[in-house]
Amino acid sequence: MIIETRAYARAGLLGNPSDGFFGKTIAISVRNFGASISLYESPELLIEAQSQDGNSFKSVYHLRDSVSMLGYNGGIPLIKAGIKKFIDYCEANQVRLPNKNFTVRYRSSIPRQVGMSGSSAILVALMRALMRFYEVEIPLEQLPRLVMVAETEELGIAAGLQDRVIQSYEGCVYMDFDKELIQSRGYGNYDRLDPRLLPKLYVAYNTNLSKVSGKVHSDVRARFDRGEEKIVRTLAEIASLAETAKNYLMEGRPEMLHELMDRNFDLRRSIYDISETNLALIQTARNLGASAKFAGSGGTIIGTYRDDEMLNRLFVELKKHNARVITPFIV
């Protein structure tokens, strides 16, 4: 029997990047793109290499572009790290696994290096496959942290809980990363919201390469840890936008998210350096009347739009900046 599992891209709707600083966020899963795992029993444990894991290239330019898009190691280190952390979890919780091996392969259609969390999607799909194969139940609220530590502790990737939460829960989720809860039990309060409450949303991602995810938070992290007043105050206000947005959605006032999303980006810009490429996407969308903010760490923006006419204009104008526009499919 072949086990097939999937996990999807994600977009931060409001509150990011406060999630890395015990803040609050709302995020959506974007089912337009996904990562899949195929796993079946075999005599030995085998991780099948994909094209991005190979060492054969058409030219030096092909190698350069491949490394820029996929990194130096492809997805195999993620698979190894995920399997190790799954085994560590089982041993720590005295779960005895049957003596059987498997062959595993991964695939992903999630655009890389534009902040849609392609790496964590592979790991979430892998954990789901391993749970089915070994008949192990990992509580849903604990799964995001298990995925996160596979990236942070094993691979040294800067990662937060938000992406792993929305990819584990799916749909639309409000997250409160209360410091005491995170430190005492390893997870915050996660509330599912009905996606039908959301306004009309678009997502636009740069088809040229952006900064690698995980490399943009270092300076702000150091300043936050030092207790710098401006950083602490700004991140707290960003977090409050998510809570305000949740209340608006529950009241049936989705149109109010337009101003909140613009404010989210403006606050972020006050403490982060924003590249001209990313800023052009934001400004182009706003000039057309749409709201716009980062969906992640850069390279992808998300916002609200009024009608199909505005959406069509977003398609045309953002394409001039090498950006592809989609309407996110959320279940």
From TrEMBL:
The keyword ATP-binding applies. It comes from the Bacteria. It holds the Pfam family GHMP_kinases_N. Keywords: ATP-binding, Kinase, Nucleotide-binding, Transferase. Residues 93-170 form the GHMP kinase N-terminal domain. InterPro entries: GHMP_kinase_C_sf (IPR036554), GHMP_kinase_N_dom (IPR006204), Glucuronokinase-like (IPR053034), Ribosomal_Su5_D2-typ_SF (IPR020568). Gene3D superfamilies: 3.30.230.120. This is GHMP kinase N-terminal domain-containing protein. It comes from Ravibacter arvi.
